[in-house]
Each structure stands twice: as structure tokens, then as C-alpha cells.
């Protein structure tokens, strides 16, 4: 190949800072394929070839210049479009100034609006006892500072519990009353200065209803989770060995509930309390390791409210009974609960029930074992009239039973 003179525009490629040092210094420029470029006539001698290449240089330079001008114009236009009017320090994504009032407003039926309404009434309850400290939840149920929580949140300690408000203020509470079997306790904090909740009707709760669980799971105060009602009147038997056995005809939910949620409210989509979160199911081998798996249970607020009112009024709560002893050993082939004895002049006897009768339903709820009957009876207040369906000698029958308080 003939040597190129130093005045060729590509002859300085040897000193190009972007060049790969391993690449040969010779640079060959291919002619553009634009259709309007002049064709180069073949030449027979090296001198003619060199002259053709020289004639190509202006065309290449003009083309490069045009491309550069077009690219510069486009870059300037885009730069102006995106950068015009922006002073140094502008925050990306700022956009037009928003109206804070408009942003904060949400439909009154939204979950966020329900949280705003209920959260100030929810508290964290801490208690110290012989076995250490416990953390649970509670909620304000009266304008004069009564707080409802689970009895097991207070533990066995004699130290007055503390209540921490939604805004972080902590005060000492007085224990008004406790009912271990119902797992309900009432505290009093006159200086609490927090609004009370609104009670809903737990008897109208239906499977599929949307609910929110408030409380302090794992000591994380002011936590809210959501879910649906998974079942109603779910029989739950709880309690540690040696303690009172607790029977719940509970509201089941898949809202995330963990240790520390106990005593907190379960709220419907209208912002009304329908239950008190009390028990969780877990696959863990111990209570300390138990965690949410989507199976949580709340005491219906109709039951909790009745017991709480009795604790406030008298310091004790009554236990609803049917006036019969239950056979806990034998099981009927078709299910149901067999009465092993009936108390004279008790509710069952006055309704015509006899020993040996098998109760199969109460208030349209199927009875499979004794715990089902106990839980449903305890849910109702003394004086309530319930309908029971039973079998006597295999023949179906029905009776209306007026429940009473234990000891009446």
C-alpha cells in the first residue's frame, strides 16, 4: 500500500487517545453509501488512485459536518425542553405544588379513615409479675377512662399495670376488676384523655366481612392489620395447666394477629368494635414461639361488653349456665352433646330436658362436643332464651331454654 502523507486528515490516528494500542495505525475510511455521491472511476495507476481518494475527502467532511450539525441541534432542543426554567437544586419529581388538605382527605368509608377514627382509642398495656413482664393491648370504652383488655395480659403480678396512649404518653392504671374464665379485665385511668370506641353488634357479623385488628404485636405499638371474618362462633378452649379453662364462641379472622395483640379491638369497616383479639393458633410447639399463621380469634364484643359492665358495676362478673352436667366421655354416633344429669329446677329441667337427651343444635349452631355447648351458653347473658334441638331415644325434639347466672 502506498505511503500516506502527513497532511491526510486520518494520518494522526497513531496518536488518537481512544485507539486500542494493539490496533494497527493504518486507518481506512469506507466511502459512504449515499446514492447521490459521485461514482469513482477505476484507475490504472497508483497516482490516479491517490487522486480519487483525495477527491473523496471533501464529501466525507461535508457529510460529517452535516451529521454533527443535526445531532447538535437535536441535543440542544432536547436539553432546552427538559431543562428550561429549572434552577440549580431543583428536586426531581416535584411537579406542581400539591394541596395538603386535598391529599389528606379520604373517603369516610376508606380503611385509612377508619384507622384515623379508632387508633387514638387504642392503648398498649404493660404488666410486671413474678414471671416477668407482659405486653398487650387495650382500648378505651368510656369517656371517664375505663380500658378493656384481656385478663391474661395482666398476668399474676401485683404491680399496677401501665397504659401507653397512641401518642406515647404512659400512665399508671388501676385494676377495676378481672374475670379469669372470661379472660376479660377492666382498667381505670382517669387522666387518660383519650376518646372511647364505638361498639358494634357482634351478633350481626358475617363470614367475609372486612375487619381491622389494632394493637401492639411484638411490642410494636400502633399497629393495624386487615383481613376478613373467617368464621363465627368458633369454639376455642384456652388456658394454661392449673389455670381457669376459658371457653370462647369466637370470631375467627385471618387478619395478622401476634403476641401483644391480646386485648386489642377487632373493628369492622364502619369503625365499630365487634370483638377483642384474644387467641391465636400456631404450629409452634410453645406459646413463646407462636406467631401468626392467619388463624386468630376474638371474643365477641357483646360478651366482652357485658362482662366489663358487670366488673365496673359490681367488681365481679356472672357466668351463664344451662343447668345440666355434660357427658364428656361417650360420644353419640350422629354427634351432639349428651346430658348426663339435669339440675332440679334449673333451666334445662324447666325446659323439659332430661338426662340422656342429646343436644345437637343451639340457636342453629351445630354441637359436636361439650365445649361447643359451654362456649355458646357463656356467650349469652343470663336471662337469654335460646332454642335447642335434641334427640331423645333417637326422636328429634325442640325446647326453649331460659339461661341463668351460676348460683341463681
What's the helix and strand layout?
Layout: H1 46-83, H2 100-104, H3 111-118, E1 122-129, E2 132-140, E3 146-149, H4 151-154, E4 162-164, E5 170-172, E6 174-179, E7 184-188, E8 210-215, E9 223-238, E10 246-253, E11 265-268, E12 273-280, E13 296-300, H5 301-314, E14 320-321, E15 324-326, E16 337-342, H6 347-350, E17 358-362, E18 365-366, H7 370-379, E19 385-392, E20 395-402, E21 404-405
Antiparallel strand pairs: 1-2, 1-4, 2-3, 3-7, 4-5, 6-7, 8-9, 8-11, 9-10, 10-13, 11-12, 12-13, 14-21, 15-16, 16-17, 17-18, 17-19, 19-20
Task: From the structure above, extract its key features.
408 residues, alpha+beta, Thrombin, subunit H, seven-stranded antiparallel sheet, 7 helices, globular, Peptidase_S1_PA, membrane, Peptidase_S1C
Kindly state the percentage of residues in helix: 10-25%
Count of domains = 3
What is the CATH C-level name of the largest domain? Mainly Beta
**CATH T-level topology of the largest domain:** Thrombin, subunit H
Q: How many E strands?
A: 21
Task: Summarize the structure in words.
By secondary structure, the protein is of the alpha+beta class. It folds into three domains: 66 residues, no CATH class; 204 residues, Beta Barrel (Thrombin, subunit H), CATH 2.40.10.120; 86 residues, Roll (Pdz3 Domain), CATH 2.30.42. The protein contains seven helices and 21 strands. The strands form four sheets. A seven-stranded antiparallel β-sheet has the order 5-4-1-2-3-7-6. The longest helix has 38 residues. It is globular and about 110 Å long. 33% of the residues are buried. The N terminus is likely disordered.
